[in-house]
Amino acid sequence: MTQQMFTLSFGLAAVLAVPQIVHSAPQCDSREAVISLLADRYGETRRSVGIAGQAAVMELFASQETGTWSITMTLPHGMMCLMASGSNYETVTEELPARGDPA
Length: 103
Hints:
Layout: H1 2-22, E1 27-30, H2 31-42, E2 45-52, E3 56-62, E4 69-74, E5 79-86
Antiparallel strand pairs: 1-5, 2-3, 3-4, 4-5
């Protein structure tokens, strides 16, 4: 129950923060239309994917050439929403510190 409350409160905080990140309400359309827009206009391709909550899929799209990036959320009914976007995308891979080592 505690984890569900944490997830719900985190989701609510994310929804409230989105307009400040995107500077407008999220833009939603069919998944095919959003992916096409990101590819055609910005040259972005999917770089990572994850499950958000129990029903939504979060995806990060980015372009190494232009440096633009977009975070999308696909809902169970098939609509995809642009949640955040920006510039200066950079791929990084960091190793976790070994267990027991002070960080």
